[in-house]
Every structure is written in structure tokens, then in C-alpha cells.
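Hey Z.,

So I finally got round to the guanosine-5',3'-tetraphosphate thing we talked about over coffee. Here's the setup:
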Amino acid sequence: GILVGMVPGILTDYDSPSTNDNDVHHQARRRRTFAIIAHPDAGKSTLTEALALHARVITEAGVTHGKQGRHASMSDWGTMERERGISISSTALRFEHGNVIFNLLDTPGHADFSEDTYRVLTAVDCAIMLVDSSRGMETQTLKLFAVCKELGLPVVTVFNKWDRPGQETLELLDEVQEATGRLPVPLNWPVGIAGDFRGLYDPESGNYTRLSRTNAGASLAQADVMSPEEAAVDAGDAWEAAREDCDIAVSLNGNFDSEEFLAGRATPVLFAAAASNFGVAPLLDFLVNRAPAPGPRPDTGGTLRPLDSDFSGFVFKMQSGMNPAHHDKLAFVRVCSGTFQRGMTLRNESSGKPVSSKYTHHMSGRDRDSADESWPGDVVGFSNASGLRIGDTVHAGEAVAFPRLPHFNAEHFRMVRGLDPSRSKAFARGISHLEEEGTIQVLYRGFGTSQTPIFAAVGVLQFDVALDRLKREFNAPAVVEEALPYEMARDLYGPDPVQTAKAAAIDVVYRSNGNPVGLFRNQWKLGRTMTDSPELFGITEDEAK
Ligand code: G4P
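And the result:
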């Protein structure tokens, strides 16, 4: 018969949490820390909402994660602070399903903020790549796939908007493989061509889940699960075609193989229509059953920090607090090992200074979990975190340092000038604040009082954001001058980098910590300098070639 409204699979392994709630391995196994990445408009907000709807949203704040919700939470910022302390809804959405706790970290959609996205991706264990089926691989899709490759992140690909006319399934898979080098392995297959989405074929069980249109979109889509025989009657030719195409894909690319997925050589593929909440349950099931749980992370020396060692984590994001007038900063830390408890004694590895864990914000896993505890994979927000910088490692007990996050190579350079001389101190403070937060890179030309700051951006929208914040938060209106004639910047290394660079007619500026940075007018000049003076870039002659 037809099973109407079947509940997605729930893992029994996780069903008795009370027995070992205090075991870090058990808690880590229950967690999935991931991000949804996509070219803008592919449906990231829609999918986020649909996932939260299918699962149980743990925090109130998380319910309003979608586009509209984000607007609301921005304007209600102050109210929310008063009501329930700092909300980290725009950083991490937390929800639970099948006794698994999900931490869904938000990434900015626009390409100009790719550096922020990169930093968030260092804090997750896998990524969901959402693709608009009618558009296929878009520029951001490709860039994000490349970032995942660099970070060694497993990626599951979801073809969204299958309810819209678009490309053919097999073509889409080819495109993925060609563009990313990852082997696309279908976990389900759409029945009905793009634009006429009937349901999903599950090659593992052989069953058909029919999309019921009666209440699609309004709430959870009613899913009718049918046997192959019933499906043949219900969907006819579309069913046969789906099975044939899926068989072709499976015979070419194989079945799901966990090792291939985790190594980034294969990307499992799912089809969905997030706006109709359809195809979301299989994605959740995938995350529960097959996505990686937090594991030991390598320190700077490459040694894995065991999950059950002392608490440790790293700052992957800084954000202004809710009261801009106070310039309070929030530092978001991804927990890598151990148990975090409010009030514990912590140290910032890079400065050696103690870090207060008194003013932290983290959500308890569930109502019955003891509050104020976080485990590997979780995100803890430190407020009043003026001593913390992006990339810093925070730890209890035995010291550890996780790899620092690299600077993205900026491509746009502009001098920034304060407009109000009486606000010059606020201007300087604002600039260094924005730099610490990672809003924009700041380079300085010259020394002392004649020092002038240069904004270095990966994307030009960063200029607008930085200027807007200088004005609003620091009451220090500023402008950027015309674009400087450089296309790239590189940190300089070696025995006497400034002299070497100047001898090669390279313009040298400095980061706030004094590190010299070379500015290059074009790729040719950069390439030439790399060949002539590889030591400037901390590379060998061979690497330069
Ligand atoms: P983003 O966060 O990735 O930028 O995308 P978002 O979720 O905002 O979705 C972008 C547009 O795509 C929205 O339409 C959304 O409704 C639509 N969309 C998302 N998933 C699906 C789907 O499965 N099928 C179809 N047909 N459309 C989908 P919009 O017109 O921009 O907004 P709205 O009219 O829905 O408010």
C-alpha cells in the first residue's frame, strides 16, 4: 500500500543518548557541522528553511534563518539582545533530527565576500553544494568547488528547482564531473523531466517517493512512498526512463562509496525542489547516516589533536556585537576537541594571554542536556573578545595551535581617507577594528604620522561595507580614493624582504603587525619577481617555476 507522510529514517544508534552524554566521542558522533554553499539565487535560504522545518529547530533564533528572517534579526538585534542574550542565528543554525545535532554555518552569498566564506568553510566538516538545475554550473559554483578542494572538504551536490524546466539529468552529472573532477554518484533520481517533477526514485531500495502537490510548499510535502510495481502504474514512462537513466549513471560512476566521498573524489548527488520542501528528507537522511562527524583536527605541525584531549578550538569569524556604539566584538570559535564549559580557564595560544569564557554564548544541544556545554563541531561565541583575532587558537590545558587562516589575495586597492579631522582617532580605531574582524584587509603606506591606510579588497563591495561601518559605528565618515594601479599583493618573506623588493622596483606597504607586503601592477610583474627572487615569497626556485 501507499505509506503517506512517511517520517524520514531515524538512526537507532543514537537513540539512547542519556547513557553516555558526557562522553566526547559519543557527543562528536552525534554532530554534523556543515555549510550550504551556492551561486546566489540557487535556493540556499529556501533549503535552509526547509531543512529546519523537517528537523526540529533547537533555538528559537534559528527559526528565522531565511532571507526574511535575516532582515528581521538585523533590525531586532537590540531587542533580541535584551530578551535572550546574543543570538548567533546568523552565524550558526542549530537543529536536531534523529538524535543528531546539526550545526549549519552560514556563508555570505556574494562573491565579493569569498574570504569570509573560506573562513567559515575551514570550520565545517562537509559542504552541501546547491545547484540551480536550470542553470547548471555557475561561476560561484565552480569557485566554491575549488575552495572545497583546497580545504579537502567532502561535498554533497543537490540539484535544486527540479520543478522548473531545465537541463537533462545525465548532462548535469557530466557537467559536474567535467568542472570539478569529482565523480557524481546519484543517491536518488528525479522521476519526470525538469519542469515536470513527479517524484524521486531511490536506487538503493528501488522505491518511488511521489511528490504530492496538494500541500507542497505550505508545509512538509506529503510524500507517498510506493513499490516499483505501484510506481510503474503511477508514473508510467517517466518511471521507466528515470530507472534507465539512473542505472546508466550508476553503471558509469558506481554506487556511493564513503571513502571516495570523504576523500573528495566523488560527490553524492541528490535532486530536490526546496521551495516545495521536496527532496529535503533524503538530504537530511544523508547527513545523518553518511556525512562525517567531527574528527580529530591537525595542528600546525600536522599532529591530530585527539577529540578527547583538553578543550580547543579556533576563531573562524569575528562580528560586531549588537550594540555598535560599544564596539564590542564577538569571536566565533569552532570546537575541535574536548568539552567547553562556561567559566573554564582558557588561553589564547597566539598571544599567550588568558581568555575569559564567562561571556560566552552557545546553545545547549537539547532541553535535557546540561546547559552551557559544547562539544566538538559546536560553535561558541565569545563576547568582549577584544584579545581574539581571526585564526587564533583558544585552548584549555595542554597548548595547541591550529593552522592560521590564510589571507586571500586582494585584487582591489584604494587609499582610505577620513573626512572629519576631529574624528581622526575614531577613524584609526575603526580601521583597525574592521581589519581585525576580517571585513577588509588594511595595508599601511609609510610610517608614524605620515602613515596612510589602504583598503585591500578581494571584492569591491567590501569597500562599501567598510565605509558604511566606519560612518555608522565609529561616526568617522570616510571615502576611498581612486583605485591604485595594482592588481595583486603578496606578503613578503626572506632575509631582507624590503630591500630586496625595493631593489626589484616593487612597492612595499605594511600590515598592521609590521609584515611587509609587495604590491604588483600585473601578473607579469609578479611572475617575474617570483622567478628572480623566490625567497621573497617564501618559496624555492623550483616552486617558482
Ligand atoms: P539564495 O538564498 O541561494 O540566494 O536563494 P533563495 O533561497 O532566496 O531562492 C532564490 C529564488 O529561488 C527564490 O525566488 C526562491 O523562491 C526560488 N526557489 C528556491 N528553491 C526553489 C525550487 O525548488 N523551485 C523553484 N521553482 N524555485 C525555487 P524569488 O522569486 O527570488 O523569491 P520568492 O518569490 O520566492 O520570495
